[in-house]
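Why run this: before we spend reagent on co-expression, it is cheaper to look at a predicted model of the complex and decide which construct boundaries make sense. The entries below are exactly what would go into the expression plan.
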Amino acid sequence: MTVRTAELLMAIMMGAFSIYLMVKSTELAIGWIDEEGPGGGTWPFWLSTIMLISCGGILINWFLKKGPVATSNKVYIEKHVLGDVAAVAGSLIITVGLFSFIGIYGALPLFLTFYIRFMGKHSWPLTVTLAVLIPVVIFYFFEITLKIILPKGITEPLFLPLYKLFF
Amino acid sequence: MFEILGLLGQGFLVVFEPQNLLLIIGGCTLGLFIGAMPGLGSVNGVAILLPLTFLVPPTGAIIFLAAIYYGAMYGGAISSIMLGIPGASTAVATTFDGRPLAKQGMADKALIGAAVASFVGGSISVVLFTFFAPPLAHVALVFGAPEEFALMMLAFATFVGLGGDDIFKTLFSICIGLVLSAVGFDIISGEPRLVLWDITGFLHGVNFLVLAIGIYGIGEMLWTVEEHALGGGKSMLSDATVTVARTIAALRELVKTWKAIVMGSFLGYFVGILPAAGATPGSLMAYGIAKQISKEPEKFGEGAIEGVCAPEAANNAASTGSMLPMLTLGIPGSPTTAILLGGMVIWGLEPGPRLFVDHSEFVWGLIASLYAANLFTLIINVAFIPVFIKVLKTPFTILAPVIFVLCLIGGYAPTQDIHDVWLMIVFGITGYLMRKLDYPLAPAVLAIVLGPLAEPAMRQSLIISEGSFMIFFERVYAGPIMIAALILLFLPLFKIIYDRLRKPRPQAE
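The model came back. Tokens follow.
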């Protein structure tokens, strides 16, 4: 896919999103209400309208072939780059998906192992050290010090003795 | 005058509390590291680390973040010089002459020049700040809703008029930020609003940190992953010999660059105040002017030390400058200060001119901390240059997962809702894809922070005027500000008309 094609697709997608926001805004009054001033939907409605107009402007520039992006025939994401970026983005999505099931302390070591060992090709000892150490530091900092309880999923019972110890 | 010095003295008392002093030193060091890492700048550091500051009181938190901001401005020069890759966009101009100097074996001279220039730039701007801020805040005390709204319009208009990006894309970015900030509840009627796809997670709104970490954490890292894949992960680290004798010699030579440094400081400070401009254009402009006023302009690009000093002085001065409108008017002067402003809201401080009256300890503590941070960063920087050079050797594949982990937790911490982590990933990936198409994203971050302040300001103004938009033009302060905003907004249009008039027949491309 070329940059030019990507520009068109992005403008269309964002234009559609703008229309969705405009429609969604009309769930609240978008006109003037006596004694109350502008309705709750006015502000987002007109802003989404400007978004839509902007997407229109981007599309016009696209058709007129104006500007460096609209005329670029370079590849949008190079093939060998796409692999790396997709692996990173995909592993992040899987990690967040796992948060609710095996918890942060199950998902993070997996993510760290994947990244350090398989993306970075570092040694196993270094990988294991970091994959264990970083979640431990996070537990101490966020859960003990800041008292922000992070999602644990099915690993919750394992943490009960730890809670008893610290709280 | 004496009153200001007294208040500054009180600020120093806050700074010298052991905890705050530690926070400054820690922040400066961390900032230097962040700035030195290619791809990470002050805005990334502040966005990713803001959730960590829930630990300390607001004054400590902002002191810490401001120190990171400062440190990162110094640190950016390190990778610009040593790797030829700007540590952050603010240090782009530093590569022009810093890199040639490093290649000639004078990396230490460039690094010391950058550190000293940063210090002078920081010092001049913080003094200007100390004496400019209180009168400005005093004037702004009479500002009501129409003035506030006009100021925010001005902030957004500078992005359109001076940002230099595609106008439609800039407008889109501003508006999407504002609309996202409107998600949740309508503040006046209390009705649920824009609960997208009826997902209940949107009921508590879109936290600005979710967008900021999404764009500046996840999105930026994806961008860096790509750069690494393109560059094949090769490192082009220069060698630097650092000895005391060479350092003294380098310092001697710096004396002759004072003109470039002072010019860069003043220029950077005033450019930094403008919301759309900030440190990057400030340092580029300083580089250009330094070249013009130099006696040997032909040396620029070949390794002129002024070419390192002027932009470094400017980017530090700009970072202080961008805090002026943030503290006095509640309008951030850069994406980083936008995030600081969002942090202030989280900590329960209402931004705006009342801050100087209601939270004087906070404001003066911050100002005094800038003096301290400036000094500490210089000392840490010069003393540990060899250490920072080693840091540049940290493999990206170790740093990246650590940053991603911090982002994931940072997105979860403020609201403790997994919905926000998903949203952050969506923003990150979309932001990365949009950035590749030259959509400017800083305006969106600024807008999501200012949105919750802009909307009530506009609605209250219209209630006062019973629906007439003339209220924004008739008032003593609001009128000129609004007109300036409109001029900036239509500046690109004027430019097009002007070009057409000069060239009767526009050439088709």
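The CA atoms of residues 10 and 55 of chain A lie 9 Å apart. The radius of gyration of chain A is 24 Å. Bring this page to Monday's planning discussion.
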